[in-house]
Amino acid sequence: MSYPAQSFLSVFRSLAMVEKTVEKCCISLSSSNSHLVVQLHCKYGVKKTHNLSFQDCESLQAVFNPALCPHLLRAPARVLADAVLSFPPALTEVTLGIGHGRRVILRSYQEEADSTNKVMVTETSIGEEDFLQLHAPEGTAVTFCLKEFRGLLSFAESANLPLTVHFDVPGRPVIFTIEDSLLDSHFVLATLLEQNPCSQDLCSPSPRQPMPQKQAHSIPHLDDFTNDDIDCYMIAMETTVGSEGSRAQPSTSLPPVSQPSHDLAPASEEEEEAEPSTVPGTPPPKKFRSLFFGSILDPVHSTQDPSPVLAEDSDGEG
Amino acid sequence: MKFRAKIVDLACLNHFTRVSNMIAKLAKTCTLRISPEKLNFILSDKLASGGVSMWCELEQENIFSEFQMEGVSAENNAIYLELTSENLSRALKTAQNARALKIKLTNKQFPCLTVSVELQLSSSSSSRIVTHDIPIKVIPRRLWKDLQEPSVPNSDVSIYLPALKTMKSVVEKMKNISNQLVIEANLNGELNLKIETELVCVTTHFKDLGNPLLPSESVSQSRHPEDMAEVHIDIRKLLQFLAGQQVTPTKAVCNIVSNRTVHFDLLLEDVSLQYFIPALS
Question: Of 2.60.40.10, 3.70.10.10, 3.40.50.300, 3.30.1330.10, which CATH number belongs to A66-112+120-192?
């Protein structure tokens, strides 16, 4: 059965009150009028009864298996929760991956379509030592919805439990698991399908440069902070007084930023939460480029066929 | 063109963060001027800001433990960058307990000011690194002439300001009644904030404020101490200025050029801020 989460939450709205006054809570199903009955037996003989209406729905079975994901990382929820604090609240998507020196990187993700309206990019890098487990090679990365991630992180943090992240190639879902003796929860999020990963490399003459060695220039911020000698001072300016031209002209010695001529996916809604479904459909493929992990992935690997879909677009729920 | 700087002292970092927060409240977009001795935050786009201009100056050696810059050329040893002020203050906000902070001019997909913060968290054994790439626009040299330090006008009256928080709460309430405000002061240490509408006039009087000593050749010498010099200004501009002041300034002076400009001259420890609000035409 399904019912709006808000109604259920409103029963337990005041946690302090619940802890102080509620002695017992009975949850039962009233078949006579299709209500979920939540009864709070409180002190002094007070009984609060909440009748929540619900709808019958299909039995849903999500198709996913964390064991099939080749990559894994596990950390106390606090470590990741601290890391996402530095992102602006409005940020929609974040990329998680392994960077140089086995550091785990979280970086704000910007859609290519926004490149004219340049936005600040924020990146947090966490040392391997802070992780309980890290089984993923350098260069792997997936992008998913930050809002959902924040939500599940705060749950894990409040339960004081470690969080395990199972992931695979971009496009395959990422599975977050939180478990202890009482509960076993899995959060499955869709990840963005990767597009040509090397077309953003400013430093190589040709747009397609698969080898990572030349990428050091494009990932200077992953260097050891204290030995940071790599600076990119490549902003050349017109130096003559009174020269005409636009406000800030880049030097002609810079290779132009290559604009890929790929079609971006039509502005369809991103599938953020994998909804279990028995009918396979095709999610709207959303392409993006892996900008900062260098092109560890061979461009040939960017799949043209959409991967098998595990879940359909969710219906427009309230 | 080159710029890199480092802050390791927590007090300096907090000070710089406070300045940046203030700038973010005063100007959505501003110009950052980097020169060998100083950093300036400049707002001079008179059209866009409705005539308001701002000049904020700080000595770089009071903030940065390391500072290297190379301007556009040897004769023009400065860098002018345009950026969204909020980006810088947001980046600095993540550096609250940082061990070190670095700022560099870089060119990632576009020219950026990269702020790198090294954090030492209690929850982790290793250090955490947070990097922010703030997009910037480099301002070409032919536009630099519009971004120079404004000349201090010969004011009719110069007076020390009352507590800015008090002024702010007064102006906030006045804003609900009128869009225009008259600010007037005299050489007797009196300052008034007045609003007038058809239905009501409200005036707040501040007394015993004190006036800074004037140079002897000043025009104001011949001025009667009780005479008020006044300017009609947009109340929202005054409110924006006051809302940006989070800290009590070391010194706060208001210079009034009758019917022309109000000039606020503040000193916040070692940082100077000048803010000009023009008279309504």
Answer: 3.70.10.10
Min Cα separation A246/chain B (Å): 9
Please tell me which of the candidates B107, B114, B127 has its beta carbon nearest to residue A235. Answer: B107
Which of B67, B113, B142, B144 to mutate to probe the A interface, most A CBs <10 Å? B142
Q: What span, in angstroms and rounded, lies between the C-alpha atoms of A166 and B45?
A: 51
Is there a contact between A200 and A110 (Cβ–Cβ < 8 Å)? no
Rounded Cα distance between A83 and A297, Å, is 26
Domain that holds residue B121: 2-146
Query: Cα(A112)–Cα(A109) distance, rounded to whole angstroms?
Result: 9
What ipTM was predicted for this assembly?
A: 0.82
Residue found under tokens 């219906």: A315
**To the nearest whole angstrom, how far is the Cα of B10 from the nearest Cα of chain A?**
17
- H-state helical runs in B111-209: 164-175
Name the closest residue on chain B to residue A256, using Cα atoms.
B109
pLDDT digits 0-9 by tens, B130-152: 999 999 999 999 989 888 888 88
Could you tell me if residue B151 is inside a domain? no
